[in-house]
């Protein structure tokens, strides 16, 4: 399993007139969590795109349990629980202190510049392998 | 079944450097489709909020099949296939001409200003009933 | 003078917790007004980019007088008061019925794909000329 | 003078199909710079709103010199060069390493919940005074 945590401070622009964070912004935060995870395993997203690869979002889900509000300091937890095959999946938890605000998931696949599906590059798989932790150990984080 | 269609023209601001629409914007379009549906059945969202009610998004999903691009004129199809109970669900299709670009869903429930869950108001249920069409007729649209 | 009017309906996503439209969204609306103007004079922005040209925003200003709110139907008035030279300028008014909510301006210049400044293409200047109206006539609109 | 510096890492969602940051996002970054400045002088924006005050943007300007791009680590410099009266003004510089990407300004005034203009609260003025530095010293930063 891979588990990374990124920090978000809610922007005024992300709120709406219900005085909560507008729901589509969680998908943007999920992406900041992916960017950080790729940094941490040593294959930054900018580098992936520099090789002519793309990593689009194929599906996205979110479940909103409690609202996030302006200026909240949040943790976005990203989990990869299965090693990548042609497609792969991330799960997310948005936490405010001890409170779980939302969960979500995205699935992805590599593509070339023309939108043609590709297998994940060997180096990506190797970096995932190197960062992989047994689930028991990972949950102790 | 209820089926409504809203028109979107893709804004420059909605694109990203992959030259496609950034994926979180589809959730914003789904909302414009809900707003239009509520207009069409005769209970505008602004009126719902004026009564002290809220109709937050509880879950959202999207599946991205083909990219939408700058200046595309899109149709956002909204479907309500089951009558509302405490919670209810909308499904969406994003279409560019004959091409299906994406599908999605959201689920919702009524709340008061303090976030307490409420049953849907009688008038809302009555308006849904009045607009309801047998599924066969609806698909002929 | 060129004067065009585009219609906007305020999206929920565009509001913030002060229950008004978040101020940066006016710049997005100004852009929808430019896109419409280019359509109307017969040289759509998509066509400009298809020729390898870019038309970036060089400066932007906005003055917020009264708030726009969720679901407001607004008119975005665009004015070009001086014919384009190397750079050119648009002015904007955001109106809600008879009420002026905001004014603004943007300035622009043509560039190639590499960001090098270019003189406006002849066809662009010709289309502007063809659409130009004496100021007196234009204000009677 | 007051001079604070906030850090931004450009999000994918902030880019557009010209492969640069979409111009309205600079106004959002200016706001993150104001929020940080208020934190640093000891009167967080959340606290201002908790007292029933609002601090809306009255005017905004931006001048775009060089594009910001995905994943850039930027510094947003905020400057307050004149002490606040009924209205007050911030200036901004967006820097990428030694390169100045953009400048801008916003002006503001305090309001109550109903949009009525108010003089700045004494505590706000006192906090500004306490943080104020002679311009010469400040520019040496």
Structure in words:
4 copies of one chain form a homotetramer. Chain A has one domain: Roll (Thiol Ester Dehydrase, Chain A). Chain A has 4 helices and 6 strands, in the order βααβββββαα. Chain A has helices at residues 25-41, 45-50, 122-131, 135-139; strands spanning 2-9, 57-64, 73-80, 87-96, 99-111, 117-118. In chain A, a hairpin with a 2-residue loop joins strand 4 and strand 5. The longest helix of chain A has 17 residues, at 25-41. At the C-D interface, helix 1 and strand 2 of C face helix 1 and strand 2 of D.
Query: CATH topology of chain A, which one?
Result: Thiol Ester Dehydrase, Chain A
Measured between the Cα atoms of the first and last residue of chain A, the distance is 12 Å
Report the sheet-strand fraction of chain A.
25-35%
Task: Report the uncertain regions of chain A.
Answer: none
N-to-C series of helices and strands of chain A: EHHEEEEEHH
Taking Cα atoms only, what radius of gyration of chain A do you get, to the nearest Å? 16 Å
What does the average pLDDT of chain A come to?
95
Q: Briefly note the structural class of the backbone of chain A.
A: alpha+beta
Number of domains of chain A: 1
How do the strands and helices of this protein lay out in sequence?
The structure is a homotetramer of 141-residue chains.
Chain A (H helix, E strand, L loop, with lengths): L1 E8 L15 H17 L3 H6 L6 E8 L8 E8 L6 E10 L2 E13 L5 E2 L3 H10 L3 H5 L2
Antiparallel strand pairs in A: 1-3, 2-5, 3-4, 4-5, 5-6
């Amino acid at each position: 399993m891979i588990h990374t945590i990124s920090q978000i401070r809610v922007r005024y622009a992300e709120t709406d007139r219900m005085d909560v964070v507008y729901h589509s912004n969680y998908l943007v935060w999920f992406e900041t969590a992916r960017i950080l995870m790729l940094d941490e395993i040593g294959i930054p997203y900018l580098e992936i795109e520099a090789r002519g690869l793309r990593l689009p979002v194929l599906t996205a889900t979110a479940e909103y349990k409690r609202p996030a509000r302006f200026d909240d300091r949040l943790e976005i937890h990203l989990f990869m629980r299965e090693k990548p095959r042609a497609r792969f999946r991330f799960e997310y938890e948005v936490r405010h202190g001890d409170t779980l605000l939302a969960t979500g998931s995205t699935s992805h696949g590599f593509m070339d510049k023309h939108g043609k599906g590709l297998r994940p590059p060997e180096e990506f798989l190797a970096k995932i392998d190197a960062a992989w932790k047994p689930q028991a150990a990972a949950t102790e984080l």
